[in-house]
Amino acid sequence: xxxxxxxxxKRNGFEAFCPKAVLFDMDGxxxxxxxxxxxxxxxxxxxxxxxxxxxxxxxxxxMRGVETIKLLARQQWHRELTDDExxxxxxxxxxLFAACPPANKMEGVELLMRKIKASGLMIGVVTxxxxxxxLNKLVNEFGxxxxxxxxxxxxxxxxxxxxxxPYLMGLSKCGVKPWEAIVVENAPLGVRAATSAxxxxxxxxxxxxxxxxxxxxxxxxxxxxxxxxxxxxxxIRG
Length: 238
What we know:
The chain is an alpha/beta fold. It is built from 11 helices and 6 strands.
């Protein structure tokens, strides 16, 4: 644990690691929602004439929906979609996702968040989602743990993950510097965004991708589940 922190400080040229805030991704971190996303992405894109296997939802997770669609169109149709064209396709995906059964909170995450709050740290959320129903659910179901003013969504940024802008916005909303924050991610593109923002990044691999993909993007620590991260919290905080 301490070795990972030392390597983080050396790599970024920081003198001290003094966490004051923890920035959580949402899908696959706060909610076990990625199976629903994988299902809706695959079937929506099939309806629209694009191929997106369910596993690709995990690879592109964190990227804004319209950017994912533009990427697929670029690869498969060899042309650039306008924002309006991409949004129309994303609306198909959003409708299918809304029809899926509600996703449960990720097992162990609420206990972890309570430990973080008890340690005196702020909790922020940095998500690529722009679906209002999900964001309202987030505040309501994590009442007292998540504040709306500390949530970064696709509406807040010009460039989504893997660009560092969402996490830089998260730092700004919390009023902290990179060495004063911890990111909790589950997706390779999210890890890339967080490490590009020079934030200590904990990857919790709640999906089917190999740990190596998270390590290759620069994750400082990797856990297999939230319960393991929760057990290690005090060592990281210390």
